[in-house]
Amino acid sequence: MNRPHPMSLSREFALQFLYQCETEKVFYFSDSHFERFVVNFEVPGYCISHARRLASGTLHDLDKIDKVIVSFSQNWGLNRMAATDRSMLRIATYELMSEETPVKVILNEAIDLARKYGTDQSGAFVNGLLDRIAASLDRK
């Protein structure tokens, strides 16, 4: 069995953390909340730093990220999106806006995670929206 790349696994844990924040209505980053998550979900040590950076950066820039997502969502308000799709879009948009990670990697991993945790349509939905966001940021 192949072990996932540490960055891929970190994205998955960041997604799970943001989803948990969403369900608990916690829309800011809290070290203690994250530490409890790390312990409860047995996040491997090699994933913690990157997952923390993605989660804290996403939550720190949440208003700006949400405005970008809504501006490209074509009649889909954030409240109409599945919570997992919304969380994945937020992480990927954060990465597109602030990380050096290649766009293709960000999009492929976001699509894979959307398919894994979302509905049958989540992969296509996330793909279409992130393609437009990446193009607008001139990150091709």
Task: Please write out the topology.
Elements: H1 6-24, H2 31-40, H3 45-60, H4 62-72, H5 83-98, H6 103-117, H7 122-136
How is this structure best described in words?
With 140 residues, the chain is mostly helical. It has a single domain (6-136), classed as Orthogonal Bundle (N-utilizing Substance Protein B Homolog, Chain A). It contains 7 helices and no strands. It has helices spanning 6-24, 31-40, 45-60, 62-72, 83-98, 103-117, 122-136. The mean pLDDT is 92.
For the structure shown, list the relevant keywords.
single chain; N-utilizing Substance Protein B Homolog, Chain A; globular; mainly alpha; 140 residues
**CATH homologous superfamily (4th level) name:** NusB-like
Query: Averaging pLDDT over every residue, what do you get?
Result: 92
Which CATH first-tier class would you pick?
Mainly Alpha
CATH fold assignment: N-utilizing Substance Protein B Homolog, Chain A
Number of beta strands: 0
Rounded Rg = 14 Å
Q: What is the strand content?
A: under 5%
Question: How helix-rich are the residues, as a percent range?
Answer: over 70%
End-to-end distance, in Å? 32 Å
Order of helices and strands: HHHHHHH
Main sheet characteristics: none
CATH architecture: Orthogonal Bundle
How many structural domains does the protein architecture include? 1
Low-pLDDT sequence parts: none
Number of H/I helices: 7
Described by the principal axes of the CA atoms, the overall outline is globular
In terms of structural class, how would the helical and strand content be classed?
mainly alpha
